[in-house]
Amino acid sequence: MAAENLAVSVFRDDVEAYSLWHEMIGIPKNRIAVMDEKDNFWSMGDTGPCGPCSEIHYRISEPKENRSPKESVEADDETYLEIWNLVFMQYNREAGGKLTPLPSPSIDTGMGLERIASIVQNFTTNYQCDLLSPIMEIVARKAGYALNNEREKDVSCRVIADHIRACVFLIADGVTPANDGRGYVLKRIIRRAARHGKELGLSPCFFSELALDFIPMMSQSYPEIKETKSLIRSLLLQEEKRFGSTLNQGMKVLENLIENALKVNKTIVPGAELFKLYDTYGFPDDLARDILNDRGFSYDQEGFDSEMKIQRDRARLAQSGKNTDLKLAEAYLELINKGLKSTYVGYDQTEAQTKLLAMIKDGQTIHKIKSGDIVEILLENTPFYAESGGQCGSQGEISHPDFFIQVIDTQRPAEGLILAKGKVISTSAEAQINLQNPVVLARLDKKKHQRIKNNHTATHLLQGALRTVLGEHVKQSGSLVNHKKLRFDFSHYEPLTRDQLLDVETIVNNAITQNEPVSATEMAYDDAVRMGAIAIFGEKYGDQVRVVQAGPLSTELCGGTHTERCGNIGLLKILSEESVSSGVRRIEAVSGGDALKWTQENIAILENIAKKYKVPLSKIENRLDQVEEQFKEKGRQFEELKKKFQTYEAQKLTQEVEEIKGKKLLIKKVDPDTDLKEQAFLLEKAIRPGIVMLGKENPPDKFSVAVVASSFISGDFNAGNFIKENAQLIGGKGGGKPEFAQCGGGNPDGWDDFVANLRRRVADL
Amino acid sequence: MTGNEIRQAFIDFFVSKGHKQVRSSSLIPLNDPTILFTNAGMNQFKNYFLGNEKPSFKKAVTSQKVMRAGGKHNDLENVGRTDRHHTFFEMLGIFPLGIILKRKQFSTPGNF
Which of A75, A218, A438, B95 is deepest in the core (most CB within 10 A)? Predict the structure, then answer.
């Protein structure tokens, strides 16, 4: 790059950076732009590290309006392109906006690869560089389009090329389409791509196919995208299909909105409705705009934007409620700054004679304890495992001649800061004990620990079995292991069939029976990956990793504690399989004694049932089928009898018909369990033509009325209107059609007036 | 020079200058509710900046997967219409940790 094509920018208050560029590097003043917060103060998010930045710009076109490089950069007239950013991380922005100096100010500096590639390769846009253009060419070819002929089609090709990269990498890192958070962003990106694919006339499944074309282009540098290929493809395909039905549904809603507006002679749809269409139905806003324009409507951008803003503010408010200040508590920082650290020795020890380094109570380092205190304890060597990778924190005890602490949990707020949390159960005769790094005996709760170890290894075997049965795309996206059970969340796009679940369970139990030893080996990350060890989504690994191997079924990167031999697990029983979110499934299982107990209890239930039906367990299914069939038959008989009875009742009731001015009228208060509507129609049929009104109490304090009028007289008498006018008599509301109407309310005393009004009404006919 | 070659050359150059090559972290930020997606190379070093943890190396070089869609750095609606905006891109970065020597840093990009 030629030096005369470079310009730099600095933050307006950063005098130091300015003078360094000018005096030390010798950049002339007309090449140093001075910018404000918007351009040259970088923040990671609403909170967190931030600081002034200085950028290096590269000239990509001829100067405009005789501007100097400084003026061009300041005017942002696209003559210069930012290629390198130096952020001086000096501050932490706390929740509330206050800037405090960072304890460890640093520099974050770098450049976007696509940008620098386009410059090195002499192109004017990122999309022409070889990281993006091959994808655009595939898209264009599939659409039968030659690039650079139509602006809108080029934009569509760009959008798709950009979005396929984002989607592939997001799914590979464990994001799945959802209605909120990261999954929602992924969904929007897929839909935006699908919308542009539609514009180009591509097939409805083009995007998932494109993923397969794209993955080989970058899998050398990012192997994770190759490993998750089948998951990426199926999730994209699923979402493409859903988008198709979304479009149809959204079109109907939009048509309704247009129709309603036309009814009141308007050619605008309220922005709030448009936003709902966009937000709730996922209907692309630009598509809605095109359709409205075609119909001669104007687009209420302002209304739409204001709804969008309301939603964003709401989201921000929800976010601000969370603890976004990630700075550690003072007491923890104090320990780190003193260089105090705990070494974990629990892989091969269940107890340790060790120094107690520090104790914290209510966020303060303390030196005295008394009975009942809840404290966090830092030990020099600790057998207690801090919760991580899904494995729960250890429990146990810490004892000393002068005190005894029961440990209920173990956490690690920062690297090396393993803190056992516990309750001081007893202290010696003196009420308080002074602590000067006493030597204590730290002991794990051995029984619980063994069960945790068994469940953790069982989780690994489960993942191995799932990958065998379902495929390599299965990856852990969440896990919980404690002494009672294990819960495993993993990427997969559909529910497991019963057979698949049985296969998985069998494979795990076979591995348990094989009783292979479980080994843990420290090795270089690259070696571990080479030998096929599975990593977890989102986990951060150092150069040296621990590889846990449990027979041929499982090799995983894992820092947790494991059982010595697979056989220790005894038995694995899967209890449930369900969906957590789109593309993520969850299995819960128990092992060992818990699995046996579960099995025994459930078989006992089945045996009791069989006993009740007086058949052996092996025959119970047949027996229950028979019983169900008999039950259905009885039901049918009951319905028939009920009908007969109602007809009989109706006939009896017809004797109570009264006549007013030649019109037949039947009024009756009936039994609470009568089906009013059915009975009223039955009676109307029996006395036709005539009017039937039935009332009944609905215990404890409600009343219902139904009226049926034969169509012969419905021209004169409208049941719907009558009910509407009189419903308030029983304290309710109601209505219906001229032939039939009903109402309900809370005032049974109104029935008599109801009756009187009907007679009066009929008399007036 | 292809994009893949540029990425490699960048890393090789800074490794030769004593930087430690650190793998890209996931697009899902680890234990950080303040951001929706990893939006910069420095995210995975945040705890070092805040003093919550002490790094085992002095300077690092990364090629980081980055998303700028949703959250503070949100470019989604611009993507495709402009020449330079992306939802996903790779950030080549170097991170001298805990050394605040502006002076020294100014000569670095020029050398590469």
Answer: B95
Rounded mean pLDDT of chain A?
89
Cβ distance A420 to A395 under 8 Å?
no
Burial class (CB in 10 A: 0-12, 13-18, 19+), A582: middle
Distance CA A170, CA A308 (A): 25
Binary contact (A20, B102; C-beta < 8 A):
yes
Residue among A329, A104, A535 nearest B55 (CA): A104
The Cα–Cα gap between A468 and A551 comes to 14
The region of weakest confidence among A82-86, A254-258, B105-109 is B105-109
**CA nearest to A436, candidates A363, A344, A366:** A366
CA A152, distance to chain mean position in Å, is 34
Best probe of the A interface among B2, B11, B13, B26, by most A CBs < 10 A, is B26
Q: What is the least distance, in Å, from the CA of A403 to any CA of chain B?
A: 31
Q: How far are the Cα atoms of A167, A722, A756 from residue A210, in angstroms, in the given order?
A: 11, 65, 76
CA distance linking residue A719 with residue A738, whole number of Å: 5
Position A21: which residue type? W
Task: Quickly count helices (H) and strands (E) in chain B.
Answer: 4, 3
Give how far Cα A257 sits from Cα of A274, A277, A726, B49, Å. 9, 10, 36, 53
Amino acid at A455: N
Q: Which residue do the tokens 């990958």 mark?
A: A467
- Count Cβ atoms within 10 A of the Cβ of residue A492 and give its class: 0-12 exposed, 13-18 middle, 19 or more buried: buried
How far apart are the C-alpha atoms of A127 and A158, rounded to whole Å? 7
The ipTM, to two decimals, is: 0.92
Q: Return the C-alpha torsion angle A706, A710, A711, A715, nearest 10.
A: -80
Structure tokens at A659: 């006549």
What's phi and psi for A143, nearest 5 deg? -90, 0
Q: DSSP for A55-94? A: EEEEE-S--STT--HHHHHHHT-SSEEEEEEEEEEEEEEP
Q: Is A58 on the interface with B (CB under 8 A)?
A: no
pLDDT at B70: 62
B59 touches chain A (CB under 8 A): no
Provide the pairing of β-strand A32-35 with A6-11. parallel
Q: Find out whether A642 and A674 touch, Cβ atoms under 8 Å.
A: no
CA distance A277 to A719: 40
Residue A252, C-beta contacts closer than 8 angstroms, at least 6 positions apart:
none
- Please provide the DSSP assignment of B39-88 as one string: -SGGGGGHHHHTTSS--SSSEEEEEEEEE-SSSSS--GGGTTTSSS--SE
Q: Find the Cα–Cα–Cα–Cα dihedral A488, A492, A497, A502, rounded to 10°.
A: -40
Residue B15 contacts A where some CB pair is shorter than 8 Å: no
pLDDT digits (tens, 9 = 90+) for B60-112: 999 999 998 765 455 576 788 888 889 999 999 998 876 555 544 555 555 55
Closest-CA distance, A724 to chain B, in angstroms, reads 53
A693 touches chain B (CB under 8 A): no
Total H helices, total E strands in chain A? 23, 30
Find, among A246, A248, A256, A261, the residue nearest to A296 by Cα: A261
- The C-alpha atoms of residue A173 and residue B73 are separated, in whole angstroms, by 20
Q: Which of A472, A488, A469 is nearest to A480 (CA)?
A: A488
Subunit contact A108:B24, Cβ cutoff 8 A: no
Alpha helices in A518-660 (DSSP H): 525-530, 592-612, 620-654
Q: Is A211 helix (H, G, I), strand (E, B) or coil?
A: helix
Residue B9, chain A, CB below 8 Å: the answer is no
